[in-house]
Specification:
mainly alpha; Hypothetical protein af1432; 11 helices; binds 2'-deoxyguanosine-5'-diphosphate; binds fe (iii) ion
């Protein structure tokens, strides 16, 4: 896959600010892939494409998902911006001819995560949060999570989900069950790991 071709396609779809964010996620995904032994070319592509459908209005997101028969959950009906992930994966597949399921899943789940993510999915999820253009002034956990991302990616996933859930608050209409399920899955994972380590 020609990365310059993909960069040009993405640039056409996004505002300058969103395109700069996207380049940050691509290069951060590339570095995390090097750190954890994932396919860094795939990570670069997944990062580049993750917000491909981000610069679309709520109405357009909803109508395009309906047009392409993509399922719309109740929480997505209430918060249509959540749809940019699955619609982005749809365009990556059908407009940009990305066939790799791991890349497509990394795009689909980059906002909420999902239980038992692949390494590539975790990389894009984390890179989206820590890329260099995100401001530490606006997010006081960011400096810590940036460092943590390169020492233990699962712990970084947990911290990111924890901040997101804290930010969303108790409003049930806002919380996508995938965000909560992912958080609980990785917390249980850590508990089981600690139990195993304790038995050793
Ligand atoms: O597209 P980006 O802005 O780069 O980042 P993103 O795709 O992670 O989307 C960020 C927003 O998504 C952020 O404000 C938190 C929000 N989000 C994550 N999980 C949920 C959620 N929003 C709702 N309503 N429900 C969720 O469960
Ligand atoms: Fe996004
Ligand atoms: Fe993003």
């Amino acid at each position: 896959m020609d990365i310059i071709y993909l960069q040009n396609k993405v640039r056409e779809k996004l505002t300058t600010q969103r395109y700069i964010h996207t380049l940050g996620v691509a290069s951060t995904s590339f570095c995390l892939a090097l750190r954890y032994g994932a396919d860094y070319n795939k990570a670069n592509i997944a990062g580049l494409l993750h917000d491909y459908a981000k610069c679309m209005s709520d109405d357009v997101l909803l109508s395009k998902c309906r047009e392409h028969n993509l399922p719309i959950l109740e929480v997505e009906e209430n918060n249509p911006y959540l749809l940019h992930s699955k619609l982005g994966a749809y365009y990556a597949k059908y407009e940009l001819n990305i066939e790799d399921e791991d890349i497509l899943n990394a795009i689909t789940y980059h906002t909420t995560g999902r239980p038992n993510m692949s390494l590539l999915e975790k990389i894009v999820f984390v890179a989206d949060y820590i890329e260099p253009n995100r401001s530490e002034k606006r997010n006081h956990n960011l400096q810590r999570i940036r460092k943590l991302s390169f020492s233990d990616i699962d712990l970084a996933v947990i911290d990111i989900l924890e901040s997101t859930l804290a930010y969303l608050g108790d409003d049930k209409s806002k919380i996508d069950t995938r965000t909560l399920d992912t958080y609980n899955y990785y917390i249980d994972n850590i508990k089981n790991k600690n139990r195993m380590d304790g038995n050793r």
